[in-house]
Amino acid sequence: MGNDDNTCIEFDDVVSGYKDFMILNNLSFKARRGAITLLIGPNGAGKSTVLKTLFGLLKPRQGRVLLNGQDISGASQKDLLAQGIAFVPQGRNLFGQLSVFENLELGGITLGLKTTHARIPEVLDFFPRVKERLHSRAASLSGGEQKQLEIGRALLLRPQVLLIDEPSIGLSPLVVQDVFKLLQRLAAQGTTVLMVEQNVKSALKYAHDAIALESGRLVLHQPASEILADPHMERLFLGGAHAVATAAGQGL
């Protein structure tokens, strides 16, 4: 997709997983700078493993992970944060007894308090509802507000790459749309977004590119709009990504 000058993230023949169980099997792909790339495929295909490997939670057993052409394979999370990679994992990852403001302070811990305090207002501009609850306990926020706070905490780092895993879990359709629209705004400003999302049809409407995985391998990499319009798309959701790729290759 695109030329190499526009490549932000590259996986080059990556093998990665847990102990002796490999999830990613010689995975290679490129994600464009300033685009939302959606990872799709059946459960166990390796979508979340891609994010965890990129963020240093898992070390590649083979192959390379590149950021703007630089090998970051096996780098520490501290180094990756310093290089502008932020990760919003699945579920709720807040300190519920602390206030919204205190959660934001902790999000900027690598920046120092002075820089964090200077950046908090610009982050809150994205989230007016969260801004109104600045001194409330995080646990008292709605599910949508909590997810927005998590994303806001990541944005404090002004990331060049935002990794986000299943942002729609537990959220209403309207709030999910708000989250997707925010990701679009960030991409328009130059942030590269790599997203795993179970709500595939909705996410495809906001994504630029889509990568389909099956058994830890790449089976499809197309503009999201093409996949959305593909009559074989349903098979993709049901785990038949390989069938879709075969059909596409045969011009069916």
Structural class: alpha/beta
Please tell me what the overall shape is: globular
Q: What fold name stands as the CATH topology of the largest domain? A: Rossmann fold
Rounded mean pLDDT is 89
**Low-pLDDT residue intervals, each spanning 5 or more residues:** 238-244
> What is the fourth-level CATH superfamily of the largest domain?
P-loop containing nucleotide triphosphate hydrolases
Number of helices: 11
CATH architecture name of the largest domain: 3-Layer(aba) Sandwich
Count of discrete structural domains: 2
Gyration radius (Cα, Å) is 18 Å
Oligomer status: single chain
Helices and strands, in N-to-C order?
EEEHEEHEHHHHEHEHEEHHH
Largest sheet: 6 strands, mixed
Q: N-to-C terminal Cα separation, in Å? A: 22 Å
Strand arrangement across the biggest beta sheet: 6-7-8-3-9-10
